[in-house]
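queue> pop job 88
queue> type: inverse folding (structure -> sequence)
queue> payload:
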């Protein structure tokens, strides 16, 4: 008998539901490089492999907007996120939404 492989679960920052990690998109804050504390890269990690602090969100704009409005990404990544970064992530999400149907 094969042992059932454990499915890693993560909580969506938007709706607060626990879902399998593979169904969510990770928003990642790249680790600090010396002297570049202000320019930390915040981006969507569509591969789930990027190094750094991550927060997860469902692959839909509703959850993304919910998390954005409530500043949940900023809280879980403990830093301020500029408006243009949100816009960029939103665009990436819209593009990835078209290619990945859940």
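queue> result:
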């Amino acid at each position: 008998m094969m042992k059932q492989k454990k499915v890693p679960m993560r909580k969506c920052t938007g709706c607060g539901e626990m879902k399998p990690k593979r169904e969510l998109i990770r928003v990642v804050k790249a680790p600090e490089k010396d002297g570049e504390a202000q320019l930390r890269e915040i981006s969507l990690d569509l591969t789930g492999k990027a190094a750094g602090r991550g927060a997860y969100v469902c692959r839909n704009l509703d959850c993304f907007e919910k998390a954005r409005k409530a500043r949940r990404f900023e809280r879980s990544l403990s830093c301020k996120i500029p408006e243009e970064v949100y816009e960029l992530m939103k665009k990436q999400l819209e593009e990835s939404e078209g290619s990945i149907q859940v």
